[in-house]
Amino acid sequence: KISQFLTFLGSLMYFALAVIIDQYKEKKIFENLSIKYIHNIYYGGIAIAMLLFTAGSGLHCSNIVPFSVEQVIPSSSNQFQLLAIYAANGYYLLRNVGSLMAFSFISYLQHGDPSYQWIPGFTIPLIAATIAFMIINMTSGIFVHHFPRANMTKKFLSIIKQSFTLSRVKSLQRNEELEILDYARSIYGGSHSTEEVRSVKMMLKLLPTFSLLLLFFTLFSQIHTTFLVQGSYITSIPALQNMSSEMYDDVAVIVTIPIVVGIYSLYVSKNTRDINLYTPLQLGFGVIALAMVYSGMVELCRLHTLSRDADNQRFLYILRLPQYILVGISEVLAAVTGLEVAIVEAPRPFRGLAFGLYFMASALGIIISRGIFLVVRVITRREGKQGYTSWICDNWNDGKLYYYFFVLAALMIINMICLIVHSRKR
Q1: DSSP structure string for 348-409
Q2: Kind and range of the H or E element at 272?
Q3: Is-contact 119 105, C-beta < 8 A?
Q4: Three-state SS across 65-89?
Q5: Alpha-carbon distances, residue 161 vs 26, 165, 192 (angstroms)
Q6: Single pTM value for the model
Q7: Helix, strand, coil % in the chain, rounded to nearest 5
């Protein structure tokens, strides 16, 4: 409820800011205020709206899938795995349906009459957020929901801190059969139950998996950064010029999810063993590495086809599509599987924390992407006869961006090998 309310407030603030700016341009309000003052109001409002969206999105993403899993009691461990798969894939499917609408239908509407371009982009999200907020409030009574007994993040950190503190105090009589975390158990002088300590151990085993997902999200973020800039050097097909290329990633996800879920369902119907979720995770890492290699090849092709000939441009536009398709497939195999791992392997009281760590890895991956981009630009900077050159120049026609994509692919292959080793040690 809180997440939907915050999202509603953010959408309402965006809409209000759009109305204010539109009316100001028409000289209907605030005629005596300077443009600088209006800019301060606008950008201050944008910052507040973004904070509301960030808080709402964080609460929503961390709780929506665990909340879904709570609604059904599975009969066996592999049935629970299948339930987790349905919940994670259902969430991702609906999220990408909404994203597809934004990048295609809404994007197309916003390229209409210049006087009213802001209306679809601000009005439709406000209506959607309002409907979602009303639905969750009217139907909350039919769902199974549990109130938290404690702040699980605080408890998680408390157990770790206490175990290290007590293990140092009792170092002289340390029992070699005990792990450090066991010293936080009440039977060994700590203040936590055996079940709570066991849950923390399970959470710590998830951290390497989330750490390896960091680089995946770094590569995935290329569809929002380098892929878009690369596309700006290629003329779009006229019928699709008002739509974002990111919609092809959404289409790939929407098509791939039913196929993957069907394979899982077939496996569970014929086997009693649990599904090894690390296998699709490894495949996802491999597919996104392939996407980076393909992106580098597309960039090479673009540099060798700089002519503005219409046929060449259409060919290059079509040639880019597999980049997004491969990333979309890898998203289902890796990002969605990461959610499934968080559900299945995280203890029930700590699922919200596990999802928070998962989405934190997603956000950090985007930050790391920017860091790698800047480091590569600086390291590859060379002084030539015509000035400074780099793999990544201000004008990408003068650079060698394909090397950047190949470096990302190599890093992901190393990351995939680490995941294979980690999964075998579990």
Answers
A1: GGGHHHHHHHHHHHHHHHHHHHHHHHHHHHHHT-EEETTEEE-SS-SSGGGS-HHHHHHHHH
A2: none
A3: no
A4: HHHHHCCCCCCCHHHHHHHHHHHHH
A5: 60, 6, 12
A6: 0.83
A7: 80, 0, 20
Q: Which amino acid is at 58?
A: G
Spatial CA neighbour of 13 closest among 44, 58, 59: 44
Which DSSP string do the residues of 214-249 spell out, in sequence order? HHHHHHHGGGGTHHHHHHHTSPPPGGGTTS-TTHHH
Contact between residue 217 and residue 225 where contact means Cβ atoms under 8 Å apart: no
CB 86 within 8 A of CB 77: no
The pLDDT score that the predictor gives to residue 409 is 95
Confidence of residue 286 (pLDDT cuts 50, 70, 90): very high
Tokens coding 144: 């199974």
Give residue 315's identity as a one-letter amino acid code.
F
pLDDT given at position 306: 64
Contact between 185 and 168 (Cβ < 8 Å): no
Tell how far CA 83 is from the center of its chain. 21
pLDDT at 215: 94
Nearest to 225 by CA among 399, 401, 49, 104: 401
Q: What is the mean pLDDT of residues 393-408?
A: 86
Name 31's Cβ contacts closer than 8 Å, sequence gap at least 6. none
What's the one-letter identity of residue 18? A
Q: What is the spatial distance between Cα 29 and Cα 21, in angstroms, rounded to a whole number?
A: 9
Q: For the residues 401-418, what does the mean pLDDT come to? A: 94
pLDDT of 374 strictly over 50: yes
- Amino acid type, 4: Q
- Packing angle of the helix pair 401-425, 278-303 (nearest 10 deg): 170
* pLDDT band with cut points at 50, 70 and 90 for residue 172: very low
What is the radius of gyration, based on Cα positions, of the chain?
25
Q: Which residue has the higher pLDDT, 73 or 181?
A: 181
Mean pLDDT of 200-214: 91
25-45 as b/e: b if 16+ CB within 10 A: eeeeeeeeeeeeebeeeeeeb
Taking a C-beta distance cutoff of 8 angstroms, is the pair 234, 310 a contact? no
Count of all residues that appear for the chain in the document: 426
List all residues 6 or more positions away from 176 whose beta carbon is below 8 Å from its beta carbon: none
